[in-house]
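Hi P.,

Sorry for the delay on this. The queue was packed all week, but I finally got your sequence through. Input first:
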Amino acid sequence: MLLEDEIQQSSFKTPQQKLAVNLLYTTNWLSSHYDKFFKGLDLTTQQYNVLRILRGQYPNPCSLKCIKERMLDKMSDSSRILDKLVTKGYAIRNECPNDRRSVNIVISDKGLELLKELDFIDDATKDIFKNLSIEQIKILNELLDNLRG
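Then the structure:
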């Protein structure tokens, strides 16, 4: 469906303005799809992102700095997100033996189990992009990478 139809706007000042609005609209559209996956789980997309980062490091611990650098949403409060994951039992925080100001974070068995249950999301994502061919997906990925420089 055309962006103009979706947001009921007949024209844009420039192609760049349309692109910016289109990217923002599409980001929100995609987020709403992901929110459905977590409904009833008391889990946010940011918490899911941090759990996947921790699983990628597992069994090695991860620092808060490492998590911040890898997070998709750079504006998120990673400390607060981590506190919630620890409270829920999905992550374990340990004081770093070499530097008492630093902490090592590792995903818990409960966190690994949750992610195992959520692995269906990777397959479900294919359905979200069903209107695009593999070639179009590759081109779009390349264009987005180029956009970010």
